[in-house]
Amino acid sequence: MDVRERRALDRGVCVITGGGRGIGAATARQAASAGWRICLSWLSDREAAESVAEEIGGVAVQADVADGDGVRALFSAAEEMGPLTAVVANAGIVATQARLDEMDAERMRRILEVNVLGVMLTAREAVLRMSTRHGGSGGSIVTVSSAASRLGSPGEYVDYAASKGAVDSFTVGLAREVAAEGVRVNAVRPGVIETDIHASGGEPGRPARLAPSIPVGRAGRPDEVAAAIIWLLGDESPFTTGAILDVTGGS
Ligand code: NAP
Q1: Is the dihedral of CA 225, 229, 232, 235 positive or negative?
Q2: Consecutive 10-residue runs of the chain (251 residues): their mean pLDDT?
Q3: Domain boundaries, the chain
Q4: Model pTM score
Q5: What residue ranges line ligand 1, CB within 6 angstroms?
Q6: Alpha-carbon span 122 to 127, nearest angstrom
Q7: For the domain 3-191+221-247, what is the CATH code?
């Protein structure tokens, strides 16, 4: 399907934070195929983000999700493209694997700022534009949590796990807060997925190491998480809100 055919489906505009790589990039591709116009954000890898945007006929904007002004600028760029109907709060980070007693405050602060504050700032801009309370026509928000929120990631990154626990609570609370305003809010909770995030934690081979412990016997792929996100984003799940969907291969 080419860009013109996709646009004919016209599901409005979809903002995806961290849409240049990994799960975000897979989601951008599938959302574009499903008929959304994509406005994606990136922080450091311009080339990856611009390549995805070009491929799907979307727009890539540099914006740190932990920065309120940056997130506002991202949504302003999206507004130029048409009515906002879908938002994926996907951007997230880990730091080098460590025990809590080896972590410093600066590391913990950055994890919480990107993974928690970033999701809240993104969702706030989404609600301000999609909620009927603010003159919007409704829409759908999907947050990207992690199975770490219930497994705790001991010895690797308990700070990250705690940040994802906050994402779960936030998702349930916001879903109930805006349910009567036409906005659905759900989370996907991926297990071990083959992306660059493991290299950024210092162990690129982590998916292969953990594969035998995953009930289906392998790590997941970004497109398998994206498929769950797309289902939650669209009209196929009109009565689903406040849900947390595990995409973990059984972990
Ligand atoms: P990834 O391949 O490392 O990609 C992360 C993306 O987030 C990149 O596009 C990056 O932008 C962007 N990003 C990072 N910090 C940002 C910031 N401050 N502002 C804006 N964008 C930022 O990671 P991934 O595995 O796809 O992870 C996506 C989400 O899935 C994260 O929330 C992660 O916690 C969650 N998750 C992943 C796994 C897994 O096993 N992969 C499991 C559970 C949950 P640049 O490209 O510019 O660097």
Answers
A1: negative
A2: 62 98 98 97 98 98 98 98 98 98 98 98 98 97 98 98 98 98 98 97 97 97 98 97 98 95
A3: 3-191+221-247
A4: 0.97
A5: 17-18, 20-24, 41-45, 48-49, 64-66, 90-93, 114, 118, 144, 146, 190, 192-193, 195-197, 200
A6: 9
A7: 3.40.50.720
